[in-house]
Design a protein that fits this description.
With about 500 residues, the chain is of the alpha+beta class. It is built from 16 helices and 21 strands.
Length: about 500
């Protein structure tokens, strides 16, 4: 049997599994979805108990497709800033709050008022609600009984890995997304933890992202169709693993991941003043790796939302995504702004570079004669303009963007990729493997069992491009004009959203 290596991603909508060979090339993939709950406006949470069944089913499917390959090791990736609170028996005492959960906005504001300089000096970040520090404080303040029962917290991929190994720990990339991790000492920032009023004993053990966490339990191995005892490596937060899976460690490369949300990332050597409060800064899976990230909360989500409204769908199946691709083809002949509308894609707040929870989505320019394809075109343009906003922050930071790599499900829409290339005025290189975080985890598993391999060199060789989209030069100036209108529109509508938020008492 030939060796294979498995990456498992505990994502915001599903578990994804990807097996690669010794050369880093994908061999098999599978996924299973699970529900996300929103019991109140701004809340996004999941039941950690649903992850294991989804993971074992997807691993089993993936393994069956491998033929004469056998899994030698596993590593994990997962939805960042998503704490799971555990009691003494390692049972969750509360649902997992996802990264986009905004319920802790008041705690984030309080941290900013009292400890902004502490967070800036240690992480380069503002303690926004997207980071776990504010979520930990919300849990302490609003769930005192469950907080008292909590003996430890970990993150989504860590809890799923615990179910595979029986071992609890985390690693620097997810720890860094708490903003309570000290990059210099590679340990928790105990001083800041005490100052903000959290219990030290609930913080988990830290291992390097590339370290072995444990071995596969016999009962899980049977469910997955794998041999018991194979090594299981820590892995990292989804975007830290994506840094490997998109070649984002190259000095001139901008990587864009387009799935439910969207992420715009570049490799940096540390936080930069020009990006403070406009993008976020994170440690990578290796000590020498760091990345800055722009967050587009409504990426594919905005397109899905538009489609559901247009065609009265509650859930989306394969036929719906085929129809969305057909809509994308239909609008491929549109010139910039031909929809006659302008869309602000802030369906879950604005993310970077604004960090404003009061921002809401807006669609301007509607008429009674507006056709469905034009709605879809406007929404796609709005998301693309928001991506451009984030790319411009990197330019302001002095980053030289020479290459643009794009992964995620959005790459299947050729017109969207064409629009993105033209708006950014750069060639867009489409990644052969769209599941960059899962690929990054699988590469960690491979490098972990083959110590002679350099992880970054391995990633550079393994990550392949399947197509290059060139900007339409005849449209670049027109899109530039539309982008300026988009920015003006945001400033005007933001003021209205602030007034509306005050009126509603939120």
């Amino acid at each position: 049997m030939k060796p294979a290596y498995l990456g498992i991603d505990c994502g915001s909508t599903s578990v994804k599994c990807l097996a690669i060979g010794a050369d880093g090339c994908p061999l098999g993939v599978a996924s299973r979805t699970y529900p996300t709950y929103s019991p109140q406006d701004g809340w996004m949470e999941q039941d950690p108990g649903t992850w294991l069944e989804a993971a074992t089913a997807s691993v089993r499917e993936c393994v069956r497709s491998l033929g004469n390959h056998a899994i030698q090791a596993i590593a994990f990736s997962g939805n960042m800033s998503s704490p799971v609170f555990l009691d003494a028996a390692c049972r969750p005492v509360y649902r997992c709050m996802l990264v986009g959960d905004a319920r802790c906005a008041q705690q984030a504001k309080a941290l900013t008022c009292s400890f902004a300089e502490d967070f800036r000096s240690t992480s380069g970040n503002i303690p926004d609600a997207c980071f776990a520090a504010a979520k930990l404080l919300w849990f302490r303040d609003n769930c005192p009984e469950q907080y008292a029962k909590t003996t430890q917290f970990v993150f989504a991929k860590d809890y799923l890995r615990y179910q595979f190994t029986g071992v609890l720990n985390t690693e620097p990339t997810d720890a860094g997304n708490t903003l309570l991790y000290d990059v210099q000492t590679a340990n928790w920032n105990w001083t800041l933890i005490r100052e903000i009023g959290l219990r030290e004993e609930i913080f988990p053990q830290l291992l390097p992202s590339t370290a072995q966490s444990g071995t596969l339990l016999a009962e899980v191995a049977r469910e997955c169709g794998l041999p018991a005892g194979i090594p299981v490596f820590c892995g990292g937060a989804d975007m830290a693993c994506s840094q490997l899976g998109t070649k984002c460690f190259l000095p001139d490369a901008l990587s864009i991941t387009l799935s439910t949300s969207g992420q715009v990332c570049m490799n940096v050597d540390g936080w930069r003043r020009e990006g403070y409060g406009r993008v976020t800064f994170h440690p990578g899976v290796l000590p020498q790796l760091h990345y800055a990230m722009g967050s587009v909360f409504s990426g594919g989500l905005a397109l899905n939302w538009c489609y559901k409204l247009l065609f009265g769908r509650e859930t989306l199946g394969k036929e719906d995504f085929d129809r969305m691709n057909a809509l994308s083809c239909q609008i491929s002949g549109y010139a910039p702004g031909e929809s006659g509308m302008l869309f602000l894609p802030f369906l879950s707040g604005s993310g970077t570079p604004y960090f404003s929870p009061v921002d809401r989505g807006s669609l301007l320019g509607l008429t009674i004669a507006t056709e469905p394809a034009r709605y879809f075109s406007a929404v796609m343009e709005g998301v693309t303009m928001h991506i451009r906003e984030n790319a411009d922050v990197f330019r302001d930071m002095g980053c030289d963007i020479r290459r643009v790599f794009v992964g995620g499900g959005g790459t299947h829409m050729r017109h969207w990729m064409q629009m993105l290339a033209t708006v950014l005025d750069r060639e867009v290189e489409i990644l052969q493997c769209p599941d960059a975080s899962t690929l990054g985890a699988a590469l960690i598993a491979l490098a972990g069992t083959e110590p002679q391999l350099d992880l970054m060199q391995l990633a550079e060789q393994a990550v392949q491009v399947c197509g290059v989209i060139h900007p339409q030069k005849e449209y670049t100036r027109r899109y530039e004009e539309l982008f300026l209108i988009y920015q003006s529109c945001y400033q005007a509508v933001h003021q209205i959203n602030e007034q509306l938020s005050a009126f509603l008492g939120s």
